[in-house]
């Protein structure tokens, strides 16, 4: 990904979790983490040495020697980027489950279709840009044509990665020590032996088996795992380190990073991704997709073993190691590289659905890790519904739902005095739309700890009731119309006042405890009209025909 893309994706992840849990302290570090994700491409933690004649100490200059030249970048492009790949295309690695970037010992030399000149014409960035510019100028004079990765490695054929164990090493490439395969999973019993096997020395004229073209760089899942280990063990997690983890995760979702190549229109793909991402994120549908994946994965407490080709169909879980999550993303990205783009054999194209889907997965993985480091705990999922028949007067209150939820329901009053209700589609709080059912519905469906409050607006005969949370009594209303619905209940009208002191009428079904006294009620005759200027806030009214049921409910 481009640096701007890394920054936007990381900010988006923080914003998504902040909407759910704004009080988690770590979420205040979004800007720091996003800037770190942006800056990670500028690390100066990998040193290459350009061999000029015979190898000598690159850090000591002698006037009589053709000194070797050390560098951590070339024309602004940092060599650290070589560690931002995971070569799924190659298959099982020689040093890791999947190795990192390598030209001759990996996939970068295979099935390359983009000419280096094309990368220059389309504003290639990073290593591809600077090395293509240099190599094309040299090689064109010989009448040859190079592909993008071929140009990079042609230019670096007389350079080697300066690593621990080599002569004159002064901590020049700390990335290689940090990201090396851990000893418990390495076929080498010693770090220096592993580094020596990964990074052969070079000669001034290159040669088979020598230098950068034959080197096997560290895979990006090792990068993410290293920085996550620092985040996870810190008493106060460093948001900069977390931003580095975000960068590693996000890079693994780019098909070319998973195919182990800088060419094949890698730069054009990332430019197009950067251009389209803001429009995708502006659509709430993308947020919903990300959160749906996150919720599913966060509830999954399984532990994964080593991932292999074909394991992209596994469902990630909150207990997966970071390296497994990165590898899983890369397996999905490589699936798109071959399945959707056919390895770019027919040139460049950008599939909006494919790229958007990979980005959704990358954001969901980032969100999963942010939830872990910030101490997020997901509300417990709703238990299975329990059915119960309401056969006595009661107040049902809609309570105990999660933020952002509501429900719809249908109900009908039966001759036996039951109020069967079925709750469906629990989706926003405190807004509970209802409609009158024409036939008996299923028995009342409530989740443990939940209940339901019904507020209904008054309507003229023959109309379906329009449900409102409260009904503003701005004109008289015929009580008989209400009792055509709730005839068998000791229901009552209760008057409330809003901020403007307007009387508000709402239907309440009495229950959930006995009324204290009949004196609490004003008896209304059938058909009596209630003028809005008369009601008093807090006063309860009951129909005369319901007095008997009310007395029974009170035990009198």
Output the keywords.
single chain, 556 residues, alpha+beta, five-stranded mixed β-sheet, three-stranded antiparallel β-sheet, 16 helices
Overview of this protein structure:
With 556 residues, the protein is α+β, with helices and mostly antiparallel strands. The chain has 16 helices and 17 strands. It has a 5-stranded mixed β-sheet with strand order 11-14-13-17-15. It has a 3-stranded antiparallel β-sheet with strand order 2-1-5, with no helix packed on it. The protein has a 3-stranded mixed β-sheet with strand order 8-7-9, with no helix packed on it. Strand 13 and strand 14 form a beta hairpin. Helix 1 (3-20) runs parallel beside helix 11 and helix 4 (126-140) crosses helix 5 (148-155). The radius of gyration is 34 Å and the shape is elongated. The model is unreliable at 381-515 and 531-537 (pLDDT under 50).
Number of helical segments? Answer: 16
Given as residue ranges, the uncertain stretches (5+ residues, pLDDT < 50) are 381-515, 531-537
Sketch the major β-sheet.
5 strands, mixed
Query: Which structural category do the helix and sheet elements fall into?
Result: alpha+beta
> Strand share of the residues?
5-15%
Quaternary organisation of the protein chains: single chain
Molecular shape: elongated
* Total beta strands: 17
Mean pLDDT figure: 75
How far apart are the first and last residues' alpha carbons, in Å?
A: 76 Å
Radius of gyration: 34 Å
Strand order of the largest sheet: 11-14-13-17-15
